[in-house]
Amino acid sequence: MDIALHLGAHLTDEGQLRNCLRANQGSLSRAGVVVPRPRDCLAPVVEAANQVSEGEEAPDFMPSLCSAVGADEGTRRLVLAAPGLLARLPEVLDGRVLYPQAGPRLQALRKLFAGQRVEIFFCIRNPATYVPAFLANAKAKHAAKVQQNLAGEALRWSQLVTDFRMFWPEARLTIWCDEDTPFLWHPLLEKVAGVAPEGGFAGSYQWFDSVMVEGGAEKLEAYLGASPPVDEEHRQKVIAAFLDKFCDDAKLDVDIGATGWEEAQLDVLTQLYEDDVTQIARMEGVQVLQP
What we know:
- The protein is an alpha/beta fold.
- It has one domain: 3-Layer(aba) Sandwich (Rossmann fold), CATH 3.40.50.
- The chain has 13 helices and six strands.
- The protein has a six-stranded parallel β-sheet with strand order 2-3-1-4-5-6, sandwiched between helices.
- The protein is globular and about 55 Å long.
């Protein structure tokens, strides 16, 4: 069985990729693809991973998981899309390292899914906006601890990607930037699902509501429906034009006040992030999706 693990990052997708795939579960099921709800897969996987991390065995893990999520002998691909499989939100950032405890969890997941063909999908985000978003969503006590230890210039997603490769070298790894998601959205759906339903993914343009003014996503869908793109490059050009016209800046604004950063520091962090993405793209065994 193929296992597609969409592990995050937290505060990038907000469940929209999973929700879109689940909205197409009927057509995906006919292709042998199962996309369970997080509540059906999260507890079984995390509990078994904790067992393995403590040195115990989990011999019945795959049969139990398949039973919990409704996978059977006709299932060729199981899509588990839940950032909580890798970490809880408080474990995402300690101020200097992103996902500092990822290594042990990846080791445990590798043991649990031994014998399966695993693909890992992970979206990264500019620390200049990621850290403020984290602080806004973290509980006050933990946010205060992170603020005391915060060193934005030290944050590198490449450290986590190195952990992916070190602790699960045989897993295929696909990375993309949250900032590029508008241009990669439709290819991402197909890549994670492993199949493209005839007629495309129903409801796929709802994602654009998260970045466009009211009605913008509907106009984009109507335009591309009436004038289908000749290829993916054409689609991206149309999306770029619609974003220029209908982007809702208020939905993208992030309050950096809690970080204590100045605007000049944001520019530094952004440049470091871009350099980090370049480094990740050079890593062996890593596919970085870019427009």
